[in-house]
Specification:
Blueprint lengths: L1 E11 L19 E10 L2 E7 L10 E4 L4 E4 L1 E3 L11 H8 L4 H6 L4 H9 L3 H17 L2 E7 L6 H17 L4 E8 L10 H18 L5 E6 L6 H13 L3 E6 L7 H7 L4 E4 L5 H7 L5 E4 L1 H7 L6 H6 L5 E2 L13 H12 L3 H8 L1 H5 L18 E4 L7 H4 L6 E6 L2 E2 L2
Parallel strand pairs: 1-4, 1-5, 6-7, 7-8, 8-9, 9-10, 10-11, 11-12, 12-13
Antiparallel strand pairs: 1-2, 2-3, 5-14, 14-15, 15-16
Helix pairs in contact: 4-5, 5-6, 6-7, 12-13
Length: 412
């Protein structure tokens, strides 16, 4: 069965050729077709073009998109949506003057989430996470990466990863799993970090790989969490076991983690609220893509990733939600795109590219999603009638989505 979308006011992110990612000035170019058609067959994009060239398909399901835009669904390359409970009490603590670091030092933060998760059954964890995934799909996310890291014991980390595996099996969107055992130091190891790192490399990583539960390995490389040397060891062992690196880095301090990411050919280096000129130089002409998380900056009141400086220096950039209970409790990529424009001074073209094709690349999914390209999954956003794609980030906080299609099928 074919589906024909006709009279599309504007078809956004049209790429005739496969593109891995966009960098520098390329990010300001967003190819579109006005008054367009789009054909979906067997869940894939099979044809598109101007309405004057629209084929006659006798047996197609026809959807009239007059006055509406179609663009590829968002590609959210950094989330922690498999978690238990919430942390709104810490939200109030921050309003009352405590910092993220203050809360962490008194047993809050990641350790709070770890305690809740360890006491939650795998089935309950799945039910909570399934609801969040359904919610972000309705908001336009059509590919997603999900991290562990709120377990901090072998059993609890495996529980998280098994939930992610179940989500992979039961949902039709591409999902990538990341092992983030090095997210924080568990309470039991607070005076013996060396032993926890040994546990990670000697037991956790081999077990995760044995059960085929992760695609990537990640480390929170930050003062008070994991040092550059510890990060390098964990990424090295992960790579030897077939897990591709990613890094949380430069969130509060720039301590040299970007260079480690590049050394081990990390898919992405994420956060980057604190960027030195030398970090920008290190990233130039590499395969490692920087990922900004503006929702985290908004929620914590910390600096935003210097997107303008990075793009003007010739770097690529992706943007993602960082959806998690402590520092970014929202999976709304529409808000992320708006915030990138409003607070990071990215143009709408740059922000849309960062949230689609570059986000796909940050997960190794650029061959499947992220653009309107023949042969890619028909994961599509159909907007309500709006004036232009600029209106989407401009009219922040409002829902401009009429319907989401995954593999050409409308999400109910």
């Amino acid at each position: 069965m074919k589906t024909l979308f006709k009279n599309i006011k504007e078809l956004i992110q049209v790429r005739e050729e496969q593109v891995s990612f966009l960098r520098g000035k390329e990010m300001s170019i967003l190819p579109t077709i006005k008054n367009a058609f789009l054909v979906v067959e067997n869940g894939l994009i099979s044809d598109f073009g101007k309405m004057k060239d629209c084929p006659k398909i006798s047996d197609a399901k026809v959807i009239d998109a007059s006055g509406k835009l179609i663009l590829p669904t968002w590609c959210d390359s950094h989330t922690h949506i498999v978690y238990a409970g919430t942390r709104e009490t810490e939200f109030v603590d921050r309003i009352n003057g405590l910092s993220y670091e203050d809360i962490a030092k008194r047993g809050g933060g990641i350790l709070n989430s770890a305690k809740q998760l360890q006491n939650t059954s795998e089935e309950d964890l799945y039910i909570q996470s399934k609801k969040r995934l359904e919610d972000v799909i309705k908001l336009g996310t059509g590919a997603i990466e999900i991290k562990s890291g709120y377990g901090l014991t072998l059993e609890a980390e495996l529980k998280m990863l098994r939930v992610i595996k179940r989500l992979k099996e039961e949902f039709s969107i591409p999902i990538k799993a990341t092992f983030l055992g090095a997210h924080a130091l568990p309470e039991a190891y607070k005076n013996n970090k060396e032993s926890y790192v040994e546990l990670l490399v000697d037991e956790m990583i081999p077990k995760v790989v044995e059960e085929q539960l992760a695609d990537f390995i990640d480390v929170f490389c930050e003062t008070g969490y994991f040092s550059v040397e510890e990060t390098e060891l964990i990424l090295k062992v992960g790579r030897l076991h077939g897990l591709m690196p990613k890094i949380h880095v430069n969130q509060f301090n720039a301590i040299g983690g970007v260079a480690v990411g590049v050394k081990y050919k990390a898919f992405s280096v994420d956060h980057l609220e604190e960027m030195r000129n030398e970090d920008i130089e290190i990233l130039k002409n590499t395969s490692t893509i920087p990922v900004a998380l503006p929702g985290c900056s908004y929620f914590l009141g910390i600096p935003y990733t210097p997107a303008r400086k990075m793009i003007d220096s010739g770097l690529p950039l992706a943007i993602a939600t960082d959806y998690n209970p402590g520092s970014a409790p929202s999976g709304n990529m529409n808000f992320v795109v708006s915030t990138a424009c409003i607070k990071m001074k990215m143009t709408p073209e740059e922000a849309i590219n960062a949230a689609t094709i570059n986000g796909a690349y940050a997960m190794g999914l650029e061959q499947q999603v992220g653009s309107i390209t023949k042969g890619k999954l028909a994961n599509l956003i159909l907007t309500k009638p709006i004036s232009s794609y600029n209106f989407m980030p401009y009219s922040f906080g409002n829902n401009h989505i009429e319907k989401i299609y995954l593999k050409g099928e409308a999400v109910v």
